[in-house]
Amino acid sequence: MIDNTFPEVRWGRDPGRLARRAIGAVAGSKPGAWLIRQCTPLDRWLLERSGGRLTIFGPMAVPLLLLTTTGRKSGQRRQIPLAYMREGDRLYLVGSNFGQAHDPAWVLNLIADPNAWVTMGGKEIPVRATEVVGEERDRAYQKFVDYINNYDTYRHRAAREIKVFALTRR
To answer: What are the structural domains of the chain?
Structure first.
């Protein structure tokens, strides 16, 4: 029997709704988003070295994974740490890009080639990405907003419909 589930990985514990709202307010601000972007290379390094077990954002219990895509122009593997939400045997990713006006590169890479990998729990897992639309997109996006409200800020700042992807094991 094939195991289609993803490992449960979370460093730290959920700080609670009130603390998540405060974290979301900081992360949703332009200076907060800038700071998080500056920390991304360090977080990528830690996620790579720990096999997706540790993240600098772990004490806030943000569920993070390391997504590896194939660069649409270079053909080379590209990695980025991303927050995710889980639903059954699917993981959801949001291409918020901190509310910037353009999609992040990983979104464009997944559109060009939906075969990717996630690293979590010390395992690299091959996945297939599917862009979700309509009600499923809205429901999945709301899961991110409900967890940490900076995604609501990003939605309004972006001036574009933010893409949402579902990942399943291949």
So the answer is: 17-169 (2.30.110.10)
